[in-house]
Description:
Layout: E1 6-7, E2 16-17, H1 30-44, H2 46-67, E3 72-74, H3 75-80, E4 92-96, E5 99-106, E6 109-114, E7 119-124
Antiparallel strand pairs: 1-2, 3-7, 4-5, 5-6, 6-7
This protein binds zinc ion.
Amino acid sequence: MRRPTKYCKNIECEEPITDYKSSKKLYCSESCRNRNGYLRRLEENKEFIENDKGQKQNYTVLNRYAEAGIYSEDLSKLIKFGFQPKQLLVSRFFNIDGRECHCYTIKDIVFEIDSITKKIIIHKSKHK
Ligand SMILES: [Zn+2]
């Protein structure tokens, strides 16, 4: 008896599976099965991956400033260089020169965003 034609579940392939022994077979090949798993995990972790990229990008921009010895700059200027404020994780309080301030940390860089002047102020960095 002929079995109905199945199609590979890998959305990048969808080739008909002509020769299958088990009716449970979903993919035309092992590589399609792996590829589909990879794509599914990528989709499931989209927000984490995006946030991770954002953090790296933010660090790169901040580190470039710190390296150049510039510890205060307009937020709008940093955004032009790729800084993404929406990817910042939770801030916490730091004691900076006796003042409690709301700071973000990415790796070795501790910085704050002054809500009045809209400036980013780098308080700590491996370059400072
Ligand atoms: Zn396939």
